[in-house]
Amino acid sequence: MDKNARVRSPVYDGHKLYDVHAKLLAASEKVDVPAETTPRPRSGFAVFDNGVEMKDASFSLYWANNAARTPALLEAVMPFATARVELLKSK
């Protein structure tokens, strides 16, 4: 994984189009989820509205160290709420 690599993509929320930038934040970071505890890569996502980064909207996604790169944990900060979504079980 190239730590300097970035991916940009438009995202439509049903009302408005945003520009989302993603990058690898950590190649190996230990997090606990019900499915397992293991070091895993973490990606960060920044949300831009009309070219300006939204300070009240960001996401972190932790990936499993498997061939499928299963999402194991999503942490989201949004203007109206924060969320944590954990992988409960894996085969």
**Unreliable runs, pLDDT <50, ≥5 residues?**
none
Q: What's the total helix number? A: 0
**Residues in β-strands, percent:** over 45%
Order of helices and strands: EEEEEE
Overall pLDDT metric: 84
The percentage helix is under 10%
The rounded Rg comes to 14 Å
* Spatial arrangement of strands, main beta sheet: 1-2-3-4-5-6
According to DSSP, the number of beta strands is 6
Q: What general outline do the C-alpha atoms trace?
A: globular
* Terminus-to-terminus distance: 24 Å
The SS-based structural class is mainly beta
Biggest pleated sheet: 6 strands, antiparallel
Concise description?
Helices cover about 0% and strands about 70% of the residues. It is mainly beta and about 90 residues long. A hairpin with a 2-residue loop joins strand 5 (about 70-80) and strand 6.
Provide an overview of this structure.
With 91 residues, the chain is an all-beta fold. It has a domain at 1-41. 0% of the residues lie in helices and 70% in strands. The chain contains no helices and six strands. The chain has strands at 6-12, 17-33, 36-49, 52-63, 71-78, 81-86. Strands 1-2-3-4-5-6 form a six-stranded antiparallel sheet, with no helix packed on it. A hairpin with a 4-residue loop joins β1 (6-12) and β2.
Task: Record keyword descriptors for this entry.
91 residues, mainly beta, six-stranded antiparallel β-sheet, globular
